[in-house]
Design a protein that fits this description.
Strand content: 15-25%
Number of helices: 9
Distance between the termini: 86 Å
Strand order of the largest sheet: 1-2-3-6
Structural class: alpha+beta
Helix content: 40-55%
Order of helices and strands: HHHHHHHHEEEEEHEEE
Length: 290
């Protein structure tokens, strides 16, 4: 009996029990702390996931479909007290013999189609037992679905955190490798450049290695539709070398460049649309000879 009660904790958590059943299960939970803890955990999980799902608006035709189903569904006949067998009286036997006479047609409201005549009528007790079983199965399925969804969400969050950590580690290792190559190069140079709008930019670069690391410090914060753009300038003009992200402009991350620097004589930074520009559209806030 206790196994049966324990299997109903999921239905209790989803409020899928009748009053008498609920009272019976709650009495069982008071005597079994382990089952009570499990039931409370299921109830809390269901509440949290229901709140996270938000409200769902029923489709406009829901009420119309329900009312149509009510009109088309045949109701059970009344059952005589203490006589389950009388739940489905023989309709044909209850009609007068002369009702079958050709001269007295049966009213349309009393006519039964062949499909209706084949309908199996069950007792109210059997119907309630089937409904109780369906509620238990539905409750168990719902609890399993909610638990699986919660576990999937936890796994996804942990996987995203792991991916982010791995990306940051790879970026840090790449920065250390570049910095080591620049410092070991015979033409390694460094420059500390002020910005005309405030803040500073520190450069480490090697033309022979084709590497440059830019570290900004406290550049002014820009509107969402504007951003800082880096330019490599030669006798042929200015070539875009990428945008500075918000983290890079604030000094939280370095900007790393790799590629040929042949012919590059100056470096510049301008304020451009957030999507970037093919050529500078404003005066540079940083401009320095390399």
């Amino acid at each position: 009996m206790s196994d049966h009660k324990h299997s109903m904790t999921g239905a209790w958590a989803l409020n899928a029990l009748e009053d008498s059943e609920r009272a019976e299960i709650e009495a069982y939970l008071e005597q079994n702390p382990e089952a009570a803890e499990e039931a409370r955990s299921l109830s809390e999980t269901a509440a949290h996931l229901a709140a996270a799902a938000g409200e769902q608006t029923p489709p406009p035709r829901a009420k119309q479909n329900i009312m149509a189903a009510i009109r088309q569904t045949r109701q059970l006949p009344p059952q005589e007290a203490g006589d389950p067998a009388s739940a489905a009286p023989d309709v044909a036997a209850s009609q007068p013999a002369e009702s079958a006479s050709p001269t007295q047609p049966t009213p349309a409201s009393e006519t039964m189609s062949e499909e209706e005549a084949d309908v199996e009528v069950v007792s109210l007790a059997d119907y309630r037992r089937k409904q109780h079983t369906l509620r238990l199965l539905s409750a168990a399925a719902a609890v399993l679905l909610l638990s699986t969804g919660a576990l999937t969400g936890v796994v996804m969050v942990q996987q995203n955190e792991l991916d982010s950590t791995q990306a940051q580690l790879a970026e840090s290792l790449h920065y250390q490798e570049m910095a080591g190559q620049i410092m070991a190069a015979s033409d390694a140079k460094m420059a500390n450049l002020p910005s005309s709008e405030g803040g500073r930019v520190h450069l480490s670069y090697s033309a022979t290695e084709g590497m440059m690391i830019l570290s900004a410090s406290a550049l002014p914060e820009l509107p969402e539709d504007r951003a800082y753009e880096l330019w490599l300038i030669s006798d042929d003009g200015a070539s875009p070398a990428g945008m500075l992200s918000e983290a890079q402009a604030a000094g939280r991350e370095p900007k790393m460049l790799e590629g040929s620097m042949e012919g590059v004589t100056h470096i510049g930074i301008t304020v451009e649309p957030a999507t970037g520009s093919e050529q500078p559209t404003t005066d540079p806030i940083v401009l320095s000879e390399l």
